[in-house]
Amino acid sequence: MRFVIVWIAFALFIVGCSQNASTPAPFTPMEGDAARGEQLFSQMSGSIPPCSGCHIPGVSAASPDLTGYSAVAGERVPGQSAAEYTFYSITEPGKYVVPGFGNAMYNRYGEVLTEQQIADLIAYLLTL
Questions:
Q1: In this structure, is residue 5 part of a structural domain?
Q2: 91 phi, psi to nearest 5 deg
Q3: What's residue 49's pLDDT?
Q4: Is residue 2 part of a domain?
Q5: Does residue 4 surpass a pLDDT of 60?
Q6: In contact, 113 and 121? CB cutoff 8 Å
Q7: 107, 112, 121 from 116: Cα distances, Å
Q8: What kind and span of H or E run contains 94?
């Protein structure tokens, strides 16, 4: 009997945790503003780290150099457009990690940025 109670408690715990987990929104193309995206890229607000803190042009020590990003983004994952790949790179950075780099990117951009801010970042990154 004790085993059954423990098992039920464990099952309820798992169900409760899964309902509270945030599931990133699926990719939906939106028009972004590259100028606003560039500003977000170089300066975020509050405790959100700016992308430019790790992605430094010409340097690919800890993070991939984004020079020429638009030319390769659409080739990274078969079946994904450059915009879709970029969306998931921002909102779910562990979904695909560029070979030679670890999964060290800030993983809450999808929670703290608005859909418009993400679209703006995508628009900017696709100009690189």
A1: no
A2: -85, -25
A3: 93
A4: no
A5: no
A6: yes
A7: 18, 12, 9
A8: none
pTM for the structure as a whole: 0.76
Which two three-digit tokens encode residue 26?
């699926």
Structural domain count, the chain = 1
Going by the DSSP 8-state scheme, the letter that residue 83 receives in this structure is: H
Give the pLDDT confidence score for residue 27 in this predicted structure. Answer: 73
Instruction: Please say if the pLDDT value at position 121 is more than 90.
Output: yes
Residues 6 or more apart whose CB falls under 8 angstroms from that of 54 comprise: 62, 63, 104, 105
Sequential DSSP letters for the chain? -HHHHHHHHHHHHHHHHHHHSPPPPPP------HHHHHHHHH--STTPPPGGGT--TT--SSS---TTHHHHHTTSSTT--HHHHHHHHHH-TTSS--TT--S-S-S-HHHHS-HHHHHHHHHHHTT-
